Fold:
Amino acid sequence: MRSRSRRRLLAVWAALPLASVFMSPDARAQAGARMLDVSVTDPLTNRDIGLRVRIPAGEGRAGLILYSPGIGCGLSAGQAWCEAWQEAGFFVVTLDHPVTGSSLWDTDGTTLHENLARALAVAQYGLRVADCSHVISLCLTTQEISGRVDAQRIGVAGHSFGALTAQSIAGQRLGGRDVSDSRVRAAIAFSPGALSAERAKSMASVHIPFFCVTGDHDSFVTIGSGKEAMVLGSALANRLAVFDNLPRGKRQLLVLSRADHMTFAGEPIDASRYSRDPAVNAAGDPAAWARINAITTPFWQHYLGQGGDPESGRRAMAERMEKAKLPEDRLVID
Structure:
């Protein structure tokens, strides 16, 4: 592939000797986990996409997980679990989407309200999906890592706007269109969303393992401050309806106790930009993140694993999840 994206990706990788292909055989044998930030451009959409690539230790083949953050969030989003998934042996690639990502806060020559209006335009939903599919293609064809990425073990996760992205990639129709990516074998939606219970019914078209992760105070959030603020989000009942309408057999739900929408940002947040639910203490976030790590990692290891007996593997996954949750958390494996 001779696209501008691949040339730029190769150039950055060549400048930073982090990929095992650039190491001597002895160094490769002891290769540790690595991380690098790059920027790529999708020639079809002309969108510049920021990437944080977490490379697992070792040199064997590994599954790939894409992480799509919420609105206004960038490469540090989801750090808590992205690092845990990398440690578990997966490539983890976080996207900083144009328009809806960290650039939302760039108000040079514009206003936050104007940026939000552009970010929430209908076209951005499909463009985010296209970003993810383009990055999957890059990871499978870029020589530096393609030899290690297992094309049969690809997953997508996301928070809030990223959860909507994951829902569409997994098979939920977007405006009546099927924009799913058949290369994706499993998905996790942190704060899954639906504008209504009726809209949630379209999750019936998702036929891959799907894990909905939400909290007992996960509903709306105010973005911005003062006059430059907007309330976004979804009622908790609609988030739960996303799970309710998934086909039975490969659906999972975690409702974390004492968790609000920004608990699932997976990083410390700027309180001047995002509101928190009064009932949730941000000091409890690290403990919540630890539970999320311990519960989501077995999901990936089972559904993006390397085979084995499906039934015994599913039982082992369920046992590990159950052991990691608190009694007041709600976990459903259906």
About this structure: The longest strand covers residues 149-159. DSSP finds eleven helices and eleven strands in the chain.
